[in-house]
Amino acid sequence: MEKRRTVILAEGSFADFGESKTAYGILRFIPETVVAVIDSEHAGKDSSEVSGLGHGIPIVADLASALQHKPQRLVVGIATAGGWFPSELRKIIVEALENGLEVVSGLHIMFSEDDEFRAAAARGGGRIVDLRKEPENLPVGTLQAQKTDAFVVLTVGTDCNTGKMTTSIAVVREAEKRGIKARFAPTGQTGIAIAGSGICIDHVLSDFTAGAAEKLVLEQASASGVQLIVVEGQGALAQPVYSGVTLSLMHGSLPDAMILCHRAGQDLVEIVDTPMPPLTDHIRLYEEAMRLVKPAEIKAVALSTRSLDEAEAEKAIQQAKKETGLPVTDPIRFGAGVILDALCADGLKKVPLYKGFQS
Amino acid sequence: MEKRRTVILAEGSFADFGESKTAYGILRFIPETVVAVIDSEHAGKDSSEVSGLGHGIPIVADLASALQHKPQRLVVGIATAGGWFPSELRKIIVEALENGLEVVSGLHIMFSEDDEFRAAAARGGGRIVDLRKEPENLPVGTLQAQKTDAFVVLTVGTDCNTGKMTTSIAVVREAEKRGIKARFAPTGQTGIAIAGSGICIDHVLSDFTAGAAEKLVLEQASASGVQLIVVEGQGALAQPVYSGVTLSLMHGSLPDAMILCHRAGQDLVEIVDTPMPPLTDHIRLYEEAMRLVKPAEIKAVALSTRSLDEAEAEKAIQQAKKETGLPVTDPIRFGAGVILDALCADGLKKVPLYKGFQS
């Protein structure tokens, strides 16, 4: 995991979980690295007062104040639609680069191709890291991920924003607690900002997306003795806007098991506003989509209950258990133990590739 | 459809159907535009002697000979793995551009970014068209294709190279014969070279692939009175290397019906060499993958029987009919009438989006 002193840029949006996904991810999983959050609307408050995360971390009004905390990198902690970057924030990026910071962006637009930013970096010794930049020489995916000895788990979802990244990290940390050698394979900007490496799978040419997923698994598996790799899922098969990314990730990473992530109470699919199908239909779809390649199953459901109180959360979990017949928990609220138990039930035994059968 | 006088570059590979996919597609559907094929291994022969297509079209040894037939464009009619371009062919491209031709390439490498080619084009007034170049400002796909009045059909397959493009064009031509206003929406280099427009769907960032498919359908639907749009499919859901592209295309183009294309007798999935699943399993998978977005069905099977004699072909068609319970034919060998009948059986009535249901 990343260890450098980080300032998070969340100007104008820190109170909004949806817009500050990367900020919240970093504050949840590596708060010890964060020295300040920039959002002039909440300057003077403690991070936890606004986000519920990062107790003791100050919110500051501007970069000048943040610099007093001696950061080494600035992470752009806001998501903008289609990668557009508000012009009023440009000067903060310029200042950070002039002050020698590493600026980490997960937006679709490439900071490293911006003349003003490049000039500022050259002046101040700063460095630009575009998390979404496509790696060079990606392979097409060809079932190579199956060669790893480690048990591979993929988090999948009923939609975008259902907790796939948080569930992935929570499962890895729970496994480490139990002495299992586990690795997190991030596929999105927040996961990469937290882990310090990975591939932004949605910014790869579609012919090479499965290959990128395969490469990620092989990289994580290359460390000796790795027993468990949890790959961060993206999108959802029932989310038509991003379903292709999801399927490429499934067929490239070749999971031995999947975890279905769902936001409790969500009744419409994001962006397209069609009805959210029942959990059992999502499970059926995911298992069907793996069946002719590698018949992996969904072993547990991770339910995000952040909008519910504890009693409601318990009720939602019981309801989902009854509906699906699977172990269910909210890994953030109640820990990932239940999910890891489900994954380990068969001794982390790898699932073979499709061998052909009569239907 | 494209009308300009075309020379096809198939040097060293014209006898190989797999390597000359684009050449064969053009010769099958717009032979009237082709003035010569370049392949020094078969120079002096008639195109039909080598390919079975393009009767009366000469095969010549080099560009100088081809120029005697006054071509307006040169189409690179060979597919190279990963987009690599043999250096011995570079001089032909340079010569063509120096002679003012339009050079059309569907390879992954971009001719328009090659300094030597650009210089040659500047010298001779030639023009470079990279079919795989990603269009700018693609939208993300958001179910907009559903707004068109036309009945949308998508060809899907049990693998790559199963005849999706040929089936698509054959169905459109059959529909036109019957007085149905039909359009072909190409998604690959050969289809685009034939139609004269389209988007190479596998050379789009994966986040925007569904959006590209949506844009294609909306463009074809914009002509007045269009009743039927046939979208050329890519890859296959059971072909793990390209399955994500396939699903993006499905969820972006939102077909009202699908046609399953299969190569008779194929027993292994290409590239990965896993067993080819039964047709019924492919059908189930395609329908499951549409079900939670728009429950479209597979209405017919297009069987490619090019490797069989006529009696064997008939037998294979009968066998596939029995297996699937669907109308089956080889649209190239026996015409696309059976398939069009199946599509029209319900009066080209559009299928509504997923409305939610209990499973």
Can you give a write-up of this model?
Two copies of one chain form a homodimer. Chain A has 359 residues and is of the alpha/beta class. Chain A has two domains: 6-130, 3-Layer(aba) Sandwich (Rossmann fold), CATH 3.40.50.720; 144-344, P-loop containing nucleotide triphosphate hydrolases (Rossmann fold, 3-Layer(aba) Sandwich), CATH 3.40.50. Chain A is built from 13 helices and twelve strands. Chain A has helices at 21-29, 47-51, 63-67, 90-98, 115-124, 164-177, 189-195, 209-221, 243-253, 279-291, 310-324, 331-334, 337-344; strands at residues 6-9, 34-38, 59-60, 73-76, 102-105, 127-130, 151-157, 182-185, 228-231, 257-263, 297-304, 328-329. In chain A, the strands form two sheets. A six-stranded parallel β-sheet of chain A has the order 3-2-1-4-5-6, with helices on both faces. In chain A, strands 8-9-7-10-11-12 form a six-stranded parallel β-sheet, sandwiched between helices. In chain A, helix 1 packs parallel to helix 7 (189-195) and helix 8 (209-221) crosses helix 9. Chain A is globular and about 65 Å long. In chain A, 55% of the residues are buried. The interface between A and B is large, with 55 and 55 residues.
